[in-house]
């Protein structure tokens, strides 16, 4: 959010119009409606604290952007195929493969390393070693078959890299690929996450599996959830459904999703 605020701006300049401008910038950068509302809410809490504690002499009107409706843009298989088949740099290709293969939050995938991927047991731990597990869970998830070869191609370090270095943002490359695929601006990385969740539900994957894959809180698994990934059938329905989606995209797209058959 601070990237869109003038470093010399005062609290007085945080007008309703300025708040709306910042929210619009965040959405155009690819952040979801829910994330945009949360960070704007944090800023609002800081402004209100300053007023209540006498740091500023007047209350600043606050207008938060709307929450995601729960019916945010969902892509069709044809749209997913169009995006996949366009020319794009290798780091974006890997990122898109991970998005489809994990339905995970984009920021978790940009931070994902080879060391977090256990190919022997077929499990990815989205929570890096040493990082506290927060309310926004980064769960352990199964590796779908199509994704294994993409992960195997990286011997060590971050999976998504540009010029051999990890990256923090992928918005520019994403916008270029989206434009090349003739897709609308509302399609952002989070759209793929929402789309995959919808595909899984549509294909009959139990809601508890979808919730576990997406990192949503599951009160009944607070303790046993840390061990469930060792079961042979760990999220088997979700894993199978993801491979089915990838296979369908593979049939529609002019480019294969299978790494061994992939051509740049």
UniProtKB/TrEMBL annotation:
Keyword DNA-binding: yes
GO MF annotations, alphabetized: DNA binding
Alphabetically ordered keywords of this record: DNA integration, DNA recombination, DNA-binding
GO biological process, one term: DNA recombination
Short name of one Pfam family: Phage_integrase
Highest taxon above the source species: Bacteria
Transmembrane segments: none
Every Tyr recombinase domain range: 70-240
Matching Gene3D superfamilies: Intergrase catalytic core
Similarity remark: Belongs to the 'phage' integrase family.
Name recorded for this polypeptide: Tyr recombinase domain-containing protein
């Amino acid at each position: 959010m601070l990237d869109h605020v003038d470093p010399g701006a005062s609290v007085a300049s945080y007008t309703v119009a300025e708040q709306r401008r910042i929210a619009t910038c965040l959405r155009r950068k690819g952040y979801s409606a829910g994330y945009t509302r949360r960070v704007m809410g944090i800023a609002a809490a800081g402004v209100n604290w300053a007023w209540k504690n006498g740091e500023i002499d007047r209350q600043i009107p606050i207008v938060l952007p709307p929450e995601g409706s729960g019916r945010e843009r969902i892509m069709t298989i044809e749209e997913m195929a169009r995006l996949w088949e366009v020319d794009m740099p290798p780091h974006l290709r890997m990122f898109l493969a991970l998005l489809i293969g994990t339905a995970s939050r984009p920021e978790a995938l940009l931070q994902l390393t080879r060391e977090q991927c256990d190919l022997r047991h077929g499990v990815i731990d989205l929570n890096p070693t040493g990082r506290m597990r927060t309310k926004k869970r980064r769960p352990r998830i199964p590796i779908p078959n199509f994704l294994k070869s993409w992960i195997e191609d990286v011997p060590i370090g971050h999976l998504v890299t540009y010029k051999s270095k990890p990256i923090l943002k992928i918005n520019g490359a994403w916008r270029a690929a989206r434009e090349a695929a003739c897709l609308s601006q509302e399609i952002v990385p989070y759209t793929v996450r929402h789309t995959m969740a919808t595909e899984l539900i549509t294909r009959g994957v139990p809601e508890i599996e979808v919730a576990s894959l997406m990192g949503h809180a599951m009160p009944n698994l607070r303790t046993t959830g840390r061990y469930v990934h060792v079961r042979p059938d760990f999220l088997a329905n979700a894993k199978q459904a993801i491979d089915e989606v990838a296979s369908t995209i593979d049939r529609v797209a002019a480019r294969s999703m299978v790494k061994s058959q992939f051509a740049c």
